[in-house]
Structure formats: C-alpha cells, structure tokens
Amino acid sequence: MTLGPRGTGIGGVFFRSADPEALYRWYERHLGLRRDGDTAVVLRWADDGPSGSTVFAIFPADTTYFGPGGQTFMVNIRVHDLDGLLARLAAEGVTIDPRRENFPYGRFAWIVDLDGNRVELWEPPALG
Q1: Does the structure show a pLDDT above 60 at 110?
Q2: Nearest Cα to 110, choosing from 4, 12, 3?
Q3: What is the mean pLDDT of residues 86-107?
Q4: Cβ 82 vs Cβ 69: under 8 Å
Q5: Which pLDDT belongs to residue 103?
Q6: How far is CA 15 from CA 3, 4, 33, 49, 100, in A?
Q7: Strand, coil or helix: 72
Q8: Distances in Å between the alpha carbon of 50 and those of 1, 35, 117, 125, 128?
Q9: Does pLDDT of 63 surpass 60?
Q10: Are the C-beta atoms of 81 and 3 separated by less than 8 Å?
Q11: Contact 80, 29 (CB under 8 A)
Q12: CA-CA distance, 21 to 6, in Å (whole number)?
C-alpha cells in the first residue's frame, strides 16, 4: 500500500513565553517534562519507531520563528511525502513559505492556515 502525501501525527507544539527557562522549570516540576539537554522536551512514542516523537518547545516572546504577527503558538505536523503534500497544497491555493530546511533529523517547510497561523511541516528521515 502506498501512502499518499498527508499528515501522520503531531511532531511538536511550540509556544512563546516571556521567561522560557522559568516555564520549562515549571513544566518539569509539575508535569515531569524534562528537556533533552538545553533544547526542548522530546516525548518519544515507543510504538512508532525512531520518528515517533513529539517535541514540546518554549520560545522567547520575541521569536520570529513563528512568522510575522503575534501568533503565540505553532503546531508542527509530521508528514509523509513533504514534496507531494506541498505540491497538492499549492494547487489548492494554500499559502506556502518558500523557505525549506534540511537536517539529519528531517526536512521542514511552513504553510499558513485559514486563520493566518503559521504551521510547520516535518518529514522525518526515511528509515533504512
């Protein structure tokens, strides 16, 4: 069975804070969400292989990573076939940021939803 271009899960939830360090400490103390080093909390899903994780990250209030405007959060959607999905979204008239990023842990692109929210798309690396 061939998987078409689509979303496959939540890759991450990112939001702004006036004091990210204090808020990370709060989440660790009250909910046990401990960061991997100095980066973000990574919640691993044992039944979903190496790409089965969700990142919980707190950004400074003045971050530009969420795009222009006052968006206070951004959801990262894990996807299958990023290029195919972007082609389909472009054909459907979805606003797509032309910027792309490639890392050993996957490929990234950004779109804008109907309400103007920036959404990050993440294609994990192929297994094998």
Answers
A1: yes
A2: 12
A3: 93
A4: no
A5: 93
A6: 31, 30, 15, 26, 21
A7: coil
A8: 21, 18, 28, 9, 11
A9: yes
A10: yes
A11: no
A12: 34
17-37: average pLDDT: 87
Q: Which range, of 9-13, 22-26, 51-55, 88-92, averages the lowest pLDDT?
A: 51-55
- The amino acid at residue 73 is F
35's tokens: 């960061």
Q: Two tokens at 10?
A: 């939540």
Tokens for 53, please give them.
């994780």
Q: Which amino acid is at 13?
A: V
**What are 113's two structure tokens?**
């939803």
Q: Which domains does the chain have, with CATH numbers?
A: 7-123 (3.10.180.10)
Contact criterion met (CB below 8 Å) for 44 and 88: no
Reported residue count of the chain is: 128
